[in-house]
Structure formats: C-alpha cells, structure tokens
Amino acid sequence: MSASAIEGSGEEVEDLLHALSRLGEPDGTSSYLRLSTRPVAQNLANVPKDEKARNFRRKNVHSGGYRLRDSSDDHGLSPSVALVGAGAVMPEAVRAAELLEEEGGIGADVICLTSYDLVFRALRARQGLDENGEYSILETLFPESRKLPIVSVIDGHPHSLAFLGGIQTVGQTCLGVADFGQSGDVDDLYEHYGIDAETIIGAALDAIG
Question: Does the structure show a pLDDT above 60 at 7?
C-alpha cells in the first residue's frame, strides 16, 4: 500500500494504524508507505463532513483509492476523461481537471489511488486469478456508468499504472518518469518529465480525440 499525498488532515495516522493491523494476520499483508517531501495542501482531499460519507471514503482509501472529483458535481458537465493519479502529483491532476472544465468545457473526473497494488490485486481477483481477493473497489473507482478514456499520472515509472485501462477496456495514456538523473525545482522537473498540468491536459485532449 502506498500512501496518498492528500487523504485529509489527521487521516494519515489512522491509515498507518490500519496498515500495521494487517501485519501478522493469516490473510494479512505488509505495506509500503511512500512518503514525499513535497508539501501538498490537504484541503484538496475534500474530505466529506458527513459521517456516513466519511466512513465510505475511509473504506475506499484502505481498499486502494477514492473518487476525488466528479465533473458533473462541479460544473454540470458530462465527463469525457478520467484523470487518475497517485501521491504527490495529485495537485497537477486536480489543476488539469479544473482547466479542462473552465477553459475547454470538458468534463474530467479525478481519481486518487492510495494503493495501486491493491487495485491491481482487485483486478486479478475479478479475473479469477486471486481466490482470496475482493474487487468491489473497481466499481467504486471506475463505475460502468462512467466508462471513460484514462490519463494516468505518477511521479514514478508510467508502467506502474498501465493496467488501469484493462479494468473497463478503455484507452489509456500513461504519464510518469521513465528516465532519471535530472536536477531542478519541482515545477521544472515535472515539466521536463511530462507530469505537469499542461502535459496532462494535452494527453486528455488527445485521449478524447
């Protein structure tokens, strides 16, 4: 399980305790918490205030991810593309969605993966390749009613999320860091590696044709 950069203020300790609780159990797993030195505004998580909705969000976080932003909820636009991110690049994904809607009139959903490993395992379970797996999170993240082309973005190798298009058999563009060794500030490096908001927007426009 890799930790999301924006799960909400005060939620991280609970996520850590949940991960620790899975150790030593007969059906348990170990967890890999990938931390970032980049500050990320926690209010981007838009943590629900309603307790029922908050509990549902918590369950999704522990299952591999959550829907951060549905385009129809914000501007009444029908969704055209799903932007899926993990970790410290979530601000770029959210910004790209905002610009697509505000400047292009294009609806963009945003999905935050807290553990792409768990989502991959859920896909294998649905395919019958993991007898002990549970896969309801797939319908939560990628409901049949929102079958959209995907642009995935991660500050790691792009192939890490390349399986996502197979969940609904949709087209996918994978953005990430495929080579290493550059130095600079975050904005310059994100632009160089093509994981900045402008590159995400370009990939989204290409994905929807």
Answer: no
